[in-house]
Amino acid sequence: MASAAEQLAANFNFSAFSKATELKNRIAFTLLALVVARLGTYVPMPGIDASALAAQIQQQQGGLLDVFNLLAGGAIERMAIFALGIMPYISSSIIIQLMTTVSPTLEQLKKEGESGRKQINQYTRYGTVMLAAIQAYAIAMGLEQWGTVVITPGFAFRFSTVITLTGGTVFLMWLGEQITARGVGNGISLIIMAGIVARIPIMMIQVFEQARTGAINPITVIVMLLLIGSLIGFVVFMERAQRRLLVQYPKRQQGNRVFGGESSHLPLKINVAGVIPPIFASSLLLLPMTVANFNAANIPGWLQNIVVLLGHGQPLFIILYAAMIVFFCFFYTAIVFNPEETAENLKKYGGFIPGIRPGKRTAEYIDYVLTRITVVGAGYLALVCLVPEIIGGMYGVQQFAFGGTSVLIVVSVTMDTVAQIQSHLIAQQYEGLIKKARLKGARPQR
């Protein structure tokens, strides 16, 4: 049975949206911020020869740069000031999450509520700056190895590159936080999604051009489009899927009144890890190819053969890709969800799962259920990411190599943003109902 909130959300009309002034302002702010983020991907970094860079990027296709270029919205191929994108912030967040499981200090901060969360966020920002600076210096060194890409190599170029790229990442991090606070949706996720969506028209034009020239069979393009449409529907279904554990709260009496005795649900998502596993898996697998492309002349023949086997659509790549997605799915789920902490919180507030003793037994039961649904979630992620990979490799459509990961990110972020918009509309409708009730109560009785 649908809840009152779901019924209210199902019955809202566009007149309710037109009255939601705060929501319209939030959406306008979000769109403006995303436009700024996109404009930054077209501002070139100083000291780069654009034509020489384009030639080198063309030779690096199919490697790790393609993954980062996708997540950065094409900023890497133009070597723009936002070339690092928001990935250093995501990496720093994951590192801090890992450290909270092994560091008693960070674990204590996590339990302190809002003040602890602010301190952890500050550590995440410091980590972002450090990682961005290291990656920017590595990019500067790599660019100097690319022949005439750098106009004037040397310390001045490296220093300016570190300052420019680190500043671009910090600005994107700040912009994402502003979107989260003043806009609609998660700002960091929206920036990544905007970059992916912006590249979809370019990829589609390339595919249709190949179909027009006969490089790709037009039927293959139709099959791929139908596949992407089916993947979108499948991802929506799986991202909404939950395993709900019944939680019962005992009755308690205060004076002549009885409180409690209610039941609720503990929702466990099928895909707790989100899009992190495929991103990490593809990044690690494509790293050898990227290194080989940078040093093709100095790599022995046997190592080049291994690199070829790790190319897109190759059986070894597909097997390792699936195995790493499953591994990272379990690994990241274990980081972000703590059954013992959940069981302790239930016990603190008097909640219990019927038939399960509170405390350790509840934690073991939650861990058992979570492990089973994570198997389903890992299989779902592997299927979504591998099907476009296999078909793209069979038919030679390289533009769909990252189709599964792109669909996951776009659909997940879109669903989260739509849910927040509905929450704002529901809150606005409730406020209207409360005001009407107060006006009716204030009318003088005859």
Query: What is the N-to-C succession of helices and strands?
Result: HHHHHHHHHHHEEEEHHHHHH
Structural class: mainly alpha
Which CATH C-level class of the largest domain is it? Answer: Mainly Alpha
* The CATH architecture of the largest domain: Orthogonal Bundle
Report the span from N to C terminus: 41 Å
The count of DSSP E runs of length 2 or more, i.e. the number of strands, is: 4
Neighbour order of strands in the largest sheet: 1-4
**Basic shape:** globular
Any overview of this molecule?
There is one protein chain. With 446 residues, the protein is mainly α. It folds into 2 domains: 9-214, Preprotein translocase SecY subunit, CATH 1.10.3370.10; 216-401, Orthogonal Bundle (Preprotein translocase SecY subunit). The protein contains 17 helices and 4 strands. It has helices at residues 4-10, 14-19, 21-40, 50-59, 64-71, 87-100, 104-111, 114-144, 155-182, 187-213, 218-240, 276-294, 301-309, 315-336, 339-348, 360-395, 403-442, and strands spanning 242-248, 251-254, 257-260, 263-269. The strands form 2 sheets. It has a two-stranded antiparallel ribbon with strand order 1-4. Strands 2-3 form a two-stranded antiparallel sheet. The longest helix has 40 residues, at 403-442. The model is unreliable at 1-9 (pLDDT under 50).
